[in-house]
Specification:
The complex is a heterodimer of chains A (45) and B (571).
Chain A (H helix, E strand, L loop, with lengths): L3 H8 L9 H23 L2
Chain B lengths: L2 H21 L6 H6 L6 H12 L2 H14 L10 H19 L4 H8 L2 H34 L3 H49 L6 H10 L18 H18 L1 H7 L5 H35 L8 H7 L5 H31 L2 H32 L8 H12 L4 H37 L5 H24 L5 H27 L5 H21 L5 H20 L15
Helix pairs in contact in B: 1-8, 1-17, 3-8, 3-11, 3-12, 3-17, 4-12, 4-16, 4-17, 5-10, 5-12, 6-7, 7-8, 7-17, 7-18, 7-19, 8-12, 8-17, 8-18, 9-12, 10-11, 10-19, 10-21, 11-17, 14-15, 17-18, 19-20, 19-21, 20-21
Classes of the chains: A mainly alpha (45), B mainly alpha (571).
């Protein structure tokens, strides 16, 4: 049997766990990190 | 090691273990022992996921890698945050809805028993062997540099882990990992600050980075499209994404960590927490290595960081050659240091012309310095044919022992012990749950009581722990096996991920098709490994894509689609 509370929870996901929300924050942070790494590589070489 | 260091080391480890055992005292049922009773908040899930991945080698080898090859290794982790997003959206809800104990249960509910047990068996084989290496790898370095007996070090690490993992199960693992991860992160921040403070007062942090960059250590991003290059932006983003999907989505040692979440939301938040923190953490650990490198531009480093191995050269006929090289090493260092001080002075004056000229001289003197070290490695290889001539793993700990103040040596050793123990605990707990759920309860003893399975899980945890400990103690006799295990892990991950991906995303494909596709894909990955020089990160992409493509093609052939997808759950 499927887990009913888990199924219900999926239909009431908190707003920050919808796109972009936290997913966007994680993806945005990754982009910012890559930009920083590229800058460091180019500046200090 | 001073008595203060011993107190810090044993105080930290003892307090964390005692807390874990106390927090999980009392009677446990199967859901609590194997799945943590769905009690953990997101921060516990996130720190626990990070602690399982961060083994002692992360803190011993990674700074040494930055010291010798620069910071390019950070690219390995660039696909991880994206994988955390996909896992949160696609994998976590499915596992929770099916109320699985292990990831492999999903495979039977979707395909059949043989696919489930094949994936579970692969996990047991690879993770079972690597648990021993997780103990052995740091123990050999600690015992070599600190003079501790190897078996004592293995027993200390492994014994404590077995104790609290058997006693408290998954929940004890999560609770201890949370605190162990805090010690690890805190310890590395302290290490970074101490190293920067040990640089000459005149050298600013900015100039320290400039010096490191001049000598090629800030090579964070490589845009090369050459598939044989191990770490590039593309292999990190794409290959790293697939590797992280495989590791966090299908490896029970990680799946078990986020199945302890109080709800789907808490587990998802834990994974996203890992996605946010992982890259900065690796950047910090690599930065520590780069700062050690800058420190050794102003202070004479050992010509070879594995000093006990070097000492053995002096007991051979090559002693005179080694002594001459040590003198050359000191002279080359003095010349290089003078050039670096000139560069630092030019940087402080913001004199562009002098900076360019000094950078050129620094690179030339660094090349001369490196050639003396390379010659010593050749002497070492000739004098001691079976000796390890790579010393990257010894750089950081050797630096800590020589240069850290009293008490902080103990803290950094606690970081290494915490890392080893948290990784091993996660492995033992997941090995036990897979053995009990996917084999013992599924095929050997189907209708026993809950208490019976908890007892069995305790015995299997202890059994896997003892096996790992024996492997660690006798690992020095099994060097070839260790290398084989390290390679084998990367050969199977892509295919296993492919099986899960088909299960999640290709609803028409059935068990036999995916089974055949997995075997063919594995042959393809083995061909890449044996016949090409494609970097291992790409195996994950190829393996996963091949399973999906072949199984979809096989399914579309007439006569092979036999029945509709199953939706019932078996366990």
């Amino acid at each position: 049997m499927a887990n009913e509370p888990a199924r219900r929870e999926l239909h009431t996901a908190p707003p920050f766990l919808t796109w972009p929300g936290l997913y966007g924050l994680v993806a945005g942070a990754l982009l910012a990190e890559i930009a920083l790494f590229i800058a460091l590589t180019l500046v200090y070489r | 090691m001073t008595s203060l260091d011993w107190m810090v080391l044993f105080g930290t480890l003892g307090a964390i273990v005692a807390y874990g055992v106390w927090k999980t005292r009392g009677k446990q049922d199967m859901a609590t022992y194997l799945r943590g009773g769905y009690q953990d908040r997101w921060h516990t899930v996130g720190l626990s996921v990070m602690a399982t991945q961060a083994s002692a080698v992360t803190f011993l080898s990674t700074p040494g890698q930055a010291y010798q090859d620069g910071m390019g290794f950070v690219q390995f982790y660039l696909g991880l945050p994206l994988a955390m997003i996909v896992l949160s959206i696609a994998f976590v809800p499915r596992y929770f809805r099916l109320q699985v104990y292990t990831a492999y249960e999903f495979l039977e509910s979707r395909f059949d028993r043989k696919t489930r047990q094949l994936a579970a068996l692969l996990f047991l084989l690879l993770r079972g062997l690597s648990a021993g290496i997780t103990i052995y790898a740091p123990a050999i370095i600690l015992s070599s540099l600190l003079g501790w007996p190897l078996r004592f070090t293995c027993l200390c690490m492994g014994g404590l882990v077995i104790l609290y993992t058997v006693a408290g199960g998954t929940r004890a693992v999560s609770q201890t990992q949370k605190h162990q991860m805090v010690v690890m992160l805190g310890g590395m921040v302290v290490a970074f600050v101490v190293i920067v403070m040990r640089l000459p007062a005149s050298v600013s942090l900015r100039n320290a980075f400039h010096i490191a960059g001049t000598l090629g250590k800030l090579n964070l991003i490589d845009f090369s499209a050459d598939p044989s290059r191990r770490y590039t932006l593309w292999s990190g983003l794409l290959g790293g994404f697939f590797l992280a999907m495989a590791y966090f989505g299908t490896d029970q040692s990680q799946v078990q960590r986020y199945l302890t979440g109080r709800s789907i939301t808490e587990s998802r938040l834990g994974l996203l927490f890992n996605g946010l923190l992982k890259v900065p953490m690796q950047f910090l650990v690599l930065s520590v290595g780069v700062m050690v490198f800058v420190f050794y531009q102003f202070n004479l480093p050992p010509i070879f960081f594995n000093q006990p191995e070097l000492a053995r050269v002096y007991q051979t006929p090559h002693a005179a050659h080694a002594a001459a090289l040590e003198r050359d090493h000191q002279a080359a260092f003095a010349r290089k240091r003078a050039e670096i001080e000139r560069l630092d002075a030019a940087l402080r004056r913001h004199d562009t012309e002098s900076i360019v000229a000094a950078e050129k001289s620094v690179r030339e003197s660094a090349a001369a310095f490196a050639s003396v070290r390379n010659e010593m490695q050749q002497v070492l290889a000739t004098a001691l044919p079976h000796a390890a001539t790579k010393d990257a793993d010894y750089v950081f700990l050797s630096f800590v022992i020589r240069n850290f103040p009293r008490g902080l040596v103990g803290l950094l050793l606690a970081v290494i012990f915490c890392a080893a123990m948290s990784a091993v605990a996660g492995e033992l707990s997941s090995l036990a749950s897979t053995t009990v759920v996917d084999f013992y309860r599924r095929s050997l003893c189907q209708n026993a009581s809950d208490a019976h399975y908890v007892r069995a899980a305790r015995w299997f945890t202890a059994g896997w722990g003892i096996l790992a400990l024996l492997f660690a103690i006798f690992a020095s006799l099994l060097e070839n096996l260790i290398q084989a295990v390290n390679i084998l892990g990367s050969l199977f991950y892509g295919t296993v991920l492919g099986i899960f991906a088909v299960g999640f995303f290709l609803r028409r494909v059935q068990g036999t098709a995916v089974f055949v596709a997995a075997l063919l894909s594995e042959l393809l990955v083995l061909f890449l490994f044996l016949r090409t020089n494609v970097s291992f990160l790409w195996y994950n992409v190829v393996g996963c894509a091949a399973v999906m493509l072949i199984s979809a093609t096989v399914t579309s052939w007439p006569g092979l689609r036999t029945h509709q997808p199953k939706t019932r759950r078996r366990s």
